[in-house]
């Protein structure tokens, strides 16, 4: 961290502006404020900039900076004058600054809200996206300091810088005067600017992963002189896998004259390697890692896979060692997998990389896999190997990462890579924790719209050594938000593999209608029952009897697939004994040939003790019958679309009905999500919302202090600006006051206690309804005080009676990691005792609001359950949308509770509401892209 050293600097050094970023080519840089201590760095940086770039910056030849220039460019007040630098290895590679100006174009202070901005990028680093990253960060800084517009003057020939501004996505105005292009643009994020930022983030982070998974050359550092040990084992694994690039063994203890180890060129240091090294696999003791990282950084290594242990998993000292490792690597522009990692695998034919502790290269396939734990990684690989070879043939792994402590590269980075990786069709992830749920759900939603994402979510804590914000949401709520983002959420490693294998080679079902057929009536009925339990719509099982032949299976499956009322088929099979019974190869080929004729519907097999059938299903890689197999008659089928590729139709087989049906049910739900995601709905606009007045109310309330619980009157006023009206409740400290309040409101009225222990507890008797006159009101008042104590303890209020309906609760909360979350449920025991609440991320669309209401288990009570009157759910949807808009428009609103909301046959009534405010964060969701800080 830098510290300002000039008395003119009138603001504390803003440490929260420091950030690590990933550049376009996958390397990293650090962005931080420029201070007076940077004079020598600035001069050195400027000397390495070409004359042409200097001319573009100053509009004239400017060979060197004067002492006055250096002082000006290194002394800032961090309010009206701000400079940021991008650094690699501690040295500047680019700078940006803004100066606040007034309407006359001269230097100014607040309330002036415009600033001039200018960049300078070292020529060697142009084209890496440095200026774009700096623009994101300087814009965020400017917004924080009350600046709303940037102006930039650029020479017409400086097309690269003009492109930086025009591509940013902000609303712009351009003019040309005196041979200079003047660009003006607002700094409020737009849909286009956020889309541009996210696209740049995806390309940069995906490239940083690609550099680690598909390196042109690899060095293993810490290769033992004798066989055995981690380094020597990994070296052998890389060599035996047939890695396509140069491979080097490195150990500073190699004796002079040692030029080869196990057939691999050997060196005592990375510096001795003549060619480039893209990735270094580090397997040395933790205390020796810093020196190795320094050598790698100086040699230009692009990324590190750190297998060494002794970091955050070992306690506070190791945690600090881990943070120092990440800071050191990023200073050189390198990213890290690890430390304490199991390693990485890429089965692509032109890579063939097994830089892991797995002794054998997994079978190539279309599944991308991520796990933090090495033990879980081993379990995933071994199960997929057994199932991939025995059940689904060539279905295997495209890439695999087991990241250990996950200090740098995380599951979010892998999602960025797999999103557009042409070699990966399905993503399987074991997440012990989600350090940044907000970003994960955003990336998961985009990835799931393109390919299935199956996740086992552990209940662990935040990644050790990370300085990320931890979520306060319950585990179940985070799981619900993941499903909303299209994630296929499962509970076990077995379910992860089961679902992954189905999705890897079978099409998504068009609906929940399932046909069940097979040679066992009891197994068919068991499968039928499991389908019902999973919410599917199965037809009655078709029993082919134990005497069914391969031709019988083929004919039945082909007929089922040709049926327009069938979306998927589950085939059940048990061993059959007797003349004419099909052997495993015949049955497998019969099923495969029938399925291949209708490629648009998924087929699953439930088998009992039929290892031979599972192997036969994987062995039958064509649709032609084996020699000796009966010729199966053709069956008319619909004219469906042809398969997307020429890969063989691989039918997954499961040893238990519940496993097959669970995998199928997940595929059905995911298919439904994909169809709905194509039209996600919209966030509606409302003419009666007064956003400006709401902002004024909030600003006035926040002047009273942080963490403000808003009073009842202010709460009603603030909610009213968004068209949310809370029924007034008048205090009743005495019976006479209660009577006066009732006369003011009009009978019938409600008398209720609002003391914290009685609030929203009608079951305790603290509420008296339908009081039609003063006599009833005074009698109820006396009963309450007799039961629960004096009025000063009860805090009684009088409220006009609302129409009868269903009591509900609406909540919104700002979670530090997940962001704004809107929740809905029925008031009382359903939500408090049973946890029957549904959740959606803000902003909520009209489709989200509709599904939110229907997502709770007790939703039938809103729609006329058992003859009751259906309530006004469209009005409830509008309320949810307005609450969502309020918290989305005003990040100062950190919590809202509307309880109860009585939803009647026509309309609804909000009877009580609470709001909590807090100053908005310096950086919000719309801020610049950054890596987790250390």
Describe this structure in words.
The structure is a single chain. The protein is an alpha/beta fold and 934 residues long. Helices cover 34% and strands 22% of the residues. It has 27 helices and 39 strands. The strands form 6 sheets. Strands 1-2-3-4-5-6-8-7 form an 8-stranded mixed β-sheet, with helices on both faces. The longest helix is centred in the first third of the chain and has 23 residues, at 191-213. The radius of gyration is 33 Å and the shape is flat. The termini are close together.
Helix/strand layout:
Blueprint: E1 19-22, E2 28-33, H1 39-47, H2 51-58, H3 67-74, E3 81-88, E4 91-101, E5 114-121, H4 130-144, E6 149-154, H5 159-166, E7 172-177, E8 180-186, H6 191-213, E9 218-221, H7 230-240, E10 247-250, E11 260-261, E12 264-267, E13 279-282, H8 289-299, E14 303-306, H9 316-331, E15 335-337, E16 343-346, E17 353-356, E18 364-371, H10 374-390, E19 397-402, H11 411-419, E20 426-431, H12 437-448, E21 453-457, H13 475-484, E22 488-490, H14 493-505, E23 513-518, H15 521-533, E24 537-538, E25 542-543, H16 550-562, E26 568-573, H17 584-597, E27 603-607, H18 611-619, E28 653-654, H19 657-677, H20 691-702, E29 708-709, H21 712-720, E30 729-731, H22 735-745, E31 749-753, E32 767-771, H23 774-788, H24 791-794, E33 796-800, E34 806-815, E35 819-826, H25 829-832, E36 837-841, H26 846-854, H27 873-889, E37 893-903, E38 908-910, E39 913-917
Parallel strand pairs: 5-6, 9-10, 9-13, 10-12, 13-14, 14-15, 18-19, 18-20, 20-21, 21-22, 23-24, 23-25, 23-26, 26-27, 27-28
Antiparallel strand pairs: 1-2, 2-3, 3-4, 4-5, 6-8, 7-8, 11-12, 16-17, 16-19, 29-39, 30-33, 31-32, 31-33, 34-35, 34-37, 35-36, 37-38, 37-39
Helix pairs in contact: 6-11, 8-9, 10-14, 11-12, 12-13, 14-19, 15-19, 16-17, 17-18, 20-21, 22-23, 26-27
């Amino acid at each position: 961290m830098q510290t300002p050293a000039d008395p003119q600097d009138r603001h504390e050094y803003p440490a929260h502006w420091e950030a690590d970023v990933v550049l376009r080519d996958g390397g990293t840089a650090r962005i931080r404020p420029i201070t007076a201590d940077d004079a020598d760095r600035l001069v050195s940086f400027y000397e390495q900039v070409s004359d042409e770039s200097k001319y573009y910056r100053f509009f004239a030849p400017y060979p060197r900076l004067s002492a006055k220039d250096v002082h000006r460019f290194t002394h800032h007040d961090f309010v009206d004058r701000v400079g940021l630098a991008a650094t690699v290895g501690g040295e500047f590679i680019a700078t940006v600054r803004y100066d606040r100006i007034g309407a006359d174009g001269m230097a100014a202070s607040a309330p002036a809200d415009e600033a001039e901005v200018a960049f300078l990028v070292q020529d060697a680093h142009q084209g890496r996206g440095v200026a774009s990253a700096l623009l994101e960060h300087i814009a965020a800084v400017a917004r924080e300091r009350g600046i709303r517009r940037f102006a930039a003057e650029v020479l017409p020939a400086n097309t690269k810088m003009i492109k930086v501004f025009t591509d940013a996505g902000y609303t712009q105005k351009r003019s040309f005067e005196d041979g200079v292009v003047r660009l003006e643009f607002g700094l409020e994020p737009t849909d286009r600017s956020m889309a541009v930022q996210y696209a740049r983030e995806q390309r940069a982070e995906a490239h940083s992963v690609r550099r680690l998974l598909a390196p042109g050359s690899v060095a293993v550092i810490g290769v033992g002189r004798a066989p055995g040990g981690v380094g020597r084992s990994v070296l052998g694994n890389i060599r035996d896998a047939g890695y396509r690039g140069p491979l080097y063994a490195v150990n500073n203890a190699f004796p002079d004259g040692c030029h080869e180890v196990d057939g691999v060129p050997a060196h005592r240091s990375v510096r001795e390697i003549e060619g480039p090294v893209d990735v270094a696999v580090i397997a040395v003791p933790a205390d020796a890692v810093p020196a190795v990282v320094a050598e790698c950084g100086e040699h230009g290594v692009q990324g590190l896979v750190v297998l060494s242990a002794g970091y955050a998993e070992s306690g506070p000292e190791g945690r600090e060692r881990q943070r120092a490792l990440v800071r050191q690597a990023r200073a050189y522009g390198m990213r890290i997998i690890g430390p304490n990692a199991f390693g990485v695998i890429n089965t692509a034919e032109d890579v063939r990389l097994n830089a892991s502790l797995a002794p054998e290269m997994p079978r190539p396939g279309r599944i991308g896999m991520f796990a933090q734990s090495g033990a879980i990684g081993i379990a995933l690989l071994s199960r997929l190997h057994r199932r991939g070879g025995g059940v689904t043939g060539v279905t295997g792994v495209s890439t695999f990462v087991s990241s250990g402590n996950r200090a740098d590269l995380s599951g979010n980075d892998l999602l960025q890579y797999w999103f557009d990786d042409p070699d990966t069709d399905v993503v399987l992830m074991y997440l012990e924790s989600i350090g940044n749920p907000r970003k994960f759900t955003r990336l998961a939603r985009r990835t799931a719209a393109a390919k299935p994402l199956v996740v086992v979510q552990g209940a662990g804590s935040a990644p050790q050594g990370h300085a990320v914000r931890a979520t306060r949401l319950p585990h179940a709520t985070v799981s619900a938000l993941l499903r909303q983002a299209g994630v296929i959420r499962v509970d076990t490693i077995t379910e992860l593999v089961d679902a992954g294998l189905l999705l890897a080679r079978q099409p998504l079902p068009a609906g929940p209608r399932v046909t069940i057929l097979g040679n066992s009536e009891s197994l068919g009925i068991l499968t039928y029952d499991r389908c019902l339990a999973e919410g599917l719509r199965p037809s009655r099982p078709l029993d082919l009897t134990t005497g069914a032949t391969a031709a019988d299976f083929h004919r039945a499956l082909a007929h089922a697939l040709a049926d327009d009322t069938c979306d998927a088929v589950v085939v059940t099979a048990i061993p059959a004994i007797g003349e004419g019974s099909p052997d495993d190869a015949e049955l497998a080929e019969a099923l495969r040939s029938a399925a291949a004729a209708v490629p648009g519907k998924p087929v699953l097999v439930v088998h009992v003790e039929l290892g031979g059938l599972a192997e036969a299903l994987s062995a039958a890689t064509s649709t032609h019958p084996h020699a000796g197999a009966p010729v199966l008659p053709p069956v008319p089928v619909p004219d469906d679309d042809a398969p997307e590729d020429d890969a063989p139709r691989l039918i997954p087989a499961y040893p238990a009905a519940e496993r097959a049906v669970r995998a199928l049910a997940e595929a059905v739900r995911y298919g439904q999500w994909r169809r709905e995601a194509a039209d996600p709905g919209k966030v509606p606009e409302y003419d009666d919302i007064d956003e400006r007045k709401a902002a004024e109310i909030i600003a006035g309330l926040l002047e009273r202090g942080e963490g403000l619980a808003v009073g009842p009157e202010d709460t009603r006023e603030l909610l009213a600006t968004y068209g949310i009206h809370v029924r007034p409740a008048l205090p009743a400290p005495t019976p006479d006051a209660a009577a006066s309040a009732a006369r003011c409101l009009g009978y019938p009225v409600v008398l209720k206690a609002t003391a914290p222990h009685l609030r929203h507890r009608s079951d305790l008797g603290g509420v008296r309804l339908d009081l039609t006159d003063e006599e009833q009101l005074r009698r109820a008042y006396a009963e309450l005080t007799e039961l629960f104590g004096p009025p000063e303890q009860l805090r009684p209020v009088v409220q006009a009676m609302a129409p009868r309906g269903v009591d509900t609760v609406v909540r919104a909360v700002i979670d530090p990691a997940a962001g704004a979350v809107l929740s809905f449920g029925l008031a009382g025991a359903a939500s408090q005792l049973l946890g029957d609440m549904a959740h959606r991320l803000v902003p909520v669309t009209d489709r989200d609001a509709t599904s939110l209401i229907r997502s709770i288990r007790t939703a039938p009570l809103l729609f006329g359950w058992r003859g009751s009157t259906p309530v006004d759910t469209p009005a409830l949807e509008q309320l949810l949308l307005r609450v969502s808009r309020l918290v989305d428009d005003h990040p100062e609103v950190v919590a809202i509770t509307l309880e109860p909301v009585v939803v009647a046959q026509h309309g609804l009534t909000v009877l009580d509401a609470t709001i909590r405010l807090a100053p908005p964060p310096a950086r919000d969701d719309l801020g610049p892209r950054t890596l987790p800080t250390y």
